[in-house]
Amino acid sequence: MTDSVKISVPPPELLAKKRITREGLLPWITTPVLVFAMVVVWHVYVKTTGISAFILPAPSTVWTEWLAMLDSPRAWRHTYFTIYATLVGFFWAIVIGVGLGVMIARIRWLEQTLNPFIVATQVVPKVALVPLFVVWFGFGITSKVIVAAVLAFFPILTNTVLGVKSIDEGHRDVMTSLNATRWQIFKRLELPSALPYILTGLEVGIVLAIIGAIVGEYLGGNTGLGALLIARMNAYETDQMFAVLIHMSLLGFAFYFAIGALRRVLIPWHQSASH
Q1: What is the DSSP letter of 3?
Q2: Are 185 and 252 in a shared domain?
Q3: Using one digit for the tens of pLDDT, what is the confidence trace for 15-42?
Q4: 58: enclosing H helix or E strand
């Protein structure tokens, strides 16, 4: 009598968890490899072509300038102003965008009234409004905050509307049949269901907010990383320009990953939080 061979099959939940873990680790491997490859190509191109350092400095030179920038209190002062303008503008974009988005999604006549205006304002190039904001609000921090808020506002608004309207009406009817108040429906049903959409809007909005703050610094004032970049351009210091660009990029990545971490805290149950 032969013994039967038992094959142990992992449960589907464990297989799915392992797949998600592999997919989550993949960007942490591929991203450094791609960045390293780009730097190598950059270095080889500079060395083999003999291109002028004024046009394209070597990566090692840019790295040295960026490290020197990190030791400069003046550079950190510019960084502080950019962070301040970005976060304050982003905060007001969240408050107004989420609040107005919930109202538009829940009030039919308000959506019909404001929808043509929202569509019209979305097609307007927001960056073109920066000189107007400088004229209205001056060269101080206020104009930068407003530009950051305006650019971040629309993706937050549209994603909030989409999230609230995507809720199954049957679920809302169940809450109504249980005599839930409008606040309870919003807190227990609408907000949790719309959070994935809202956080997607925040991920887009934070990137646009820092772009708006920097563009505002290009055209007005003498503080912020945008103003520092223009100063380096006017001085024909290309290597320091690249250092400022790297600093801006890392700042944008930090903001973006902060929203991603917030997603994992607020909606750990959602599929998007596992990637």
Answers
A1: P
A2: yes
A3: 445 555 555 566 667 778 888 888 888 8
A4: none
Is the pLDDT higher at 156 or at 131?
156
Arithmetic mean of pLDDT over the chain: 80
Query: What average pLDDT does range 65-83 have in this prediction?
Result: 89
DSSP E strand boundaries for 108-253? none
Q: Are residues 164 and 129 in the same domain?
A: yes
Strands (E) across 80-181 are located at none
Residue type at position 60: S
Task: Name the CA dihedral angle for 71, 75, 76, 80, rounded to a multiple of 10 degrees.
Answer: -170
**Domain span holding position 44:** 9-51
Give yes or no: residues 157 and 118 share one domain: yes
Closest among 232, 228, 204, 203 to 217, alpha carbons compared: 228
How many domains are there within the chain?
2
* Position with higher pLDDT, 238 vs 187: 238
| CATH number for position 231 | 1.10.3720.10
